[in-house]
Design brief:
mainly beta, 7-stranded antiparallel β-sheet, 204 residues
Length: 204
């Protein structure tokens, strides 16, 4: 089940993972996850994520109505999404046979839209609108993860299963800039921007 990604409802986030979904187990007989003392990862890789192609530049020719210019944002590439981990747990099975486990998200956290450079409130609004319109309609300004969201499965003999619960981040590369009346572009600042869009478990 390496890399299995489960949404907060304990159903797979990816349709292809449906057959890999762990079966329901008897919670009385199941081992309970132990909270990890490792530092929580801000950008945990999500299975199956790949970088998208580089995107074309916006039209700033004289025919593009530069007189209506001003500050703008532009996405140059949709890159791999990641998870901001809010709770991490594990079960180690030292027995010679497989055992059941139960995981539950026991801590919560919040992820908000942000960037590799400091963003003003105006630019956060512009970026969120751009991401929702062109990349992921489910992107949000802020997202707080839920408590007591459970998932379960089996851990094989002499092995460990880890579970990370957190918030998925839509990641893009792009820039902010100003389009002037003479169609020149100034104040260009390249950056990476993210926005939360979903929560769930990643099981390894």
């Amino acid at each position: 089940m390496t890399g299995l990604l489960l949404m907060g409802s304990a159903t797979p986030a990816l349709a292809d993972d449906l057959d890999a979904q762990p079966s329901t187990v008897n919670s009385v007989a199941a081992a309970t996850g132990v909270e990890s003392d490792e530092a929580l990862q801000e950008d945990l890789s999500i299975p199956g994520e790949v970088d998208g192609p580089k995107l074309s530049e916006p039209d700033s020719s004289p025919s593009s109505h530069c007189s209506e210019g001003g500050p703008f944002v532009h996405i140059t590439q949709n890159v791999k999404n990641t998870m901001s981990v809010k709770y991490s747990t594990y079960v180690t099975n030292n027995k010679s046979y497989a055992i059941n486990y139960n995981f539950s998200s026991e801590k919560s956290g919040t992820t908000s839209i942000g960037g590799s450079l400091t963003l003003s409130g105006e630019y956060k609004v512009m970026w969120l609108g751009k991401i929702k319109a062109e990349v992921n309609f489910n992107a949000s300004k802020s997202w707080t993860s839920s408590l007591h969201v459970g998932t379960s499965g089996k851990v094989q003999a002499h092995s460990t299963v880890t579970g990370d619960y957190g918030i998925m981040k839509e990641n893009i590369k792009g820039y902010t800039a100003t389009l002037n009346g003479d169609c020149s572009v100034t104040n260009k600042k390249n950056m990476t921007v993210w926005a939360p869009y979903r929560e769930g478990w990643e099981i390894n």
